[in-house]
Structures are given as structure tokens and as C-alpha cells.
Amino acid sequence: MLSAVPPPVTVRVPAKINLHLAVGPVREDGFHDLVTVFHAVSLFDEVSVTQGEPGIEVFGEGVSEVPADETNLAWRAVQRLAEQAGRDPDVTLVLRKGIPVAGGMAGGSADAAATLVGLSALWKLDLTRDELAPIAAELGSDVTFALYGGTALGTGRGERIVPVLSRHPLHWVIALHRGGLSTPRVFGELDRLRGDAEPVDRPVEPVLEAIAGGDPRQLALSLGNDLQAAAVSMVPELRRTLRAGVDAGALAGIVSGSGPTCAFLCTSAEAAMEAAAELAGLGVCRTVRVAHGPVPGARVVEEPAPP
Ligand code: C5P
Questions:
Q1: Positive or negative: CA dihedral 239, 245, 251, 254
Q2: In this predicted model, what pLDDT tens digit does every residue of 231-255 receive, in sequence order?
Q3: Is residue 21 within 6 Å of ligand 1 at its C-beta?
Q4: Same topology between domain 9-164+295-301 and domain 170-292
Q5: How does pLDDT run across 177-211, given as a tens digit for each residue?
Q6: Could you give the ipTM of this predicted complex?
Q7: Is any atom of ligand 1 closer than 6 Å to the C-beta of 187?
């Protein structure tokens, strides 16, 4: 009997920002309990999975920073799903990066989520997102959200997800910084800055109410990220970037996750284009993008974009 090689599967997966990120004290396992609101925005990676020689290829901006070996989280996703399905990890992964690397937008987690969705299709496992979620949670704190996308409340170490209904699109300017930041180091810096002090209470309700109301001005008042002080302490220029975005017309700016990428909320798509053009001219960041959210999580697409 002839066994046909299945055609490659390509999955598109979005970046995330955190509209709210409250970080609790460090736990015994080294992680921090979080209450966060994830929001998927329209910067995407594409991951293609092909049956063949085990390996990984990476294209796009910042590729020199992405490990093209078995330490890549996407490759760990291959190994983990292969184990579960009782198969050999005989797949080639191609990652096309559109999400900033080490930028606080969960690009590595996104690639791992996309790999799970892609392999489930390639190997005809037909696993639902809910079935993939426990494997995603093992791989990393942000991988589960990348499966679902949209806007969601995250608890635990970020891996427990409940969708948040948000009918109104939000418009963002995303300012990419020159370098990256290591997530564990940013959490460590927050612990250092806090010392023995209790975390300051940061309630999530105003953010959820503002999302439900759909008024970006209201949401701008309630955006908040406990990791921002730590990221700014490690990269003091971010203070200037955050100010410049607001001076350029955004309603508010926030460090995305552990940074150093900054996200600026605007009133409309046009306002975001104008603020992006102005911010780009100020020389406070490497490059500027516009994006909107919420967008769906990891999804199989028909045709891969050229590398
Ligand atoms: O889960 P993930 O591998 O993405 O986390 C990377 C690192 O970020 C962890 O090793 C930990 O140092 C830090 N982290 C944390 N608390 C969380 C999530 C991540 O301290 N809830």
C-alpha cells in the first residue's frame, strides 16, 4: 500500500499584549500568580509543519535571536505532541516571524501554540483547542492564550483562560525597541524592587468594565502592568518612549508584558496611523507598527506567505 506524504499545514498566530497585569508574590515553584487580561493583536507569526526530516528553520526580523534547534519552544511542542500521539517527531518546522522577538508579546509561546494546531491537522489528530490546552499550559504560561486569542482573563501563572466578550475593536500603535528583555529577569527585577513590601492591589474590574463598555477613553484610564516599573528600571529609555506615544496623540501607553515593546491605545484606526507616523519620526524606538485587536488565536491558513 502506498502511504502518501500529507501536504504541509500552515498556521497563523497573533501576538498578545496585556491590558492588565497584576503580579502576585513569587510562588514556591518560582512562578508568580497573575491576574491578567490578554488581548490578541494583529501582528502575526506563521508556522508551517511538513512531514520529513526533523528540523527547524526561522525567517524574518530578529531571526538571529531565535534558537533553530531543540531548545526552541515550538520544537518542544513537536516532541510533546509526538509523545502523546505515539509518533516519531519527523517534522520540519518553518517559522516566519512577524512578532517582535523577546519583545514581551509572547512570540515564542505563539509559535508553540501554532505548532500544536498545525500538527493536530497534519497528523489528523483532530484535537480541539480545549484538548490542546493542557499541553499548551505545560509548555509555557502564555501558550494557552495563543491557542484561543481574542481577549481573555488569565489567572494561575497565566495559563488559566476565560474569554472576555469585547465587541468593539481597539486600535494600537506598537513601538518596537532596539533590544529584547528576558522575561525571568524582568520578574526578578520586580521582586527586587518590591523587596519585602506586599504587592500593591491592582483590581481588574475597571478594565473588564471598560472593555464591555467599548469606550477606548475609559479603557485608557484603567490600563496597568506591574511589570512596567521593572522593565523601565532595566531599560530607562522606555520612559521617553511611553511619553512620546502620548505626545504623538495616543490615549495611553503601556509596556507590553515583560517589555520592552510598548503599546499605545488610540481612538480609531486613523488616529493610530497618525500617531504611528509621528512617533516613527521621533527616534525613540526601532520601528513602529499599527495593529488592531482582538483577533483570533492560532488558525490553519490555506497559503503560506512568501518568506
Ligand atoms: O511560562 P514561561 O516559560 O513563559 O515563563 C518564563 C519565565 O517567566 C518563568 O521561568 C518565570 O521566571 C517567569 N514567570 C513568572 N511568573 C509567571 C510567568 C512567568 O515568574 N506567571
A1: negative
A2: 999 999 999 999 999 999 999 999 9
A3: no
A4: no
A5: 988 999 999 999 999 999 999 888 999 999 999 99
A6: 0.96
A7: yes
CATH architecture for the domain at 9-164+295-301: 2-Layer Sandwich (3.30)
Give the whole-angstrom CA distance, residue 102 versus residue 261: 9
Q: Which atom of ligand 1 is nearest to the CA of 30?
A: 20
Centre of ligand 1 to C-alpha 300, Å, is 28
16 included as an active-site residue: yes
Q: Is 142 tagged catalytic? A: yes
Nearest-angstrom CA–CA distance, 42 and 172: 9
Query: In the CATH hierarchy, which fold is given to the domain comprising 170-292?
Result: Alpha-Beta Plaits (3.30.70)
What is the domain partition of the chain in residue ranges?
A: 9-164+295-301, 170-292
Check pocket membership of 34 for ligand 1, CB cut-off 6 A: yes
Query: Which 3 state secondary structure label does DSSP give 297?
Result: coil
Say how many CA atoms lie within 13 Å of 146 toward its Cβ.
Answer: 34
The answer to whether the CB of 32 is under 6 A from ligand 1 is yes
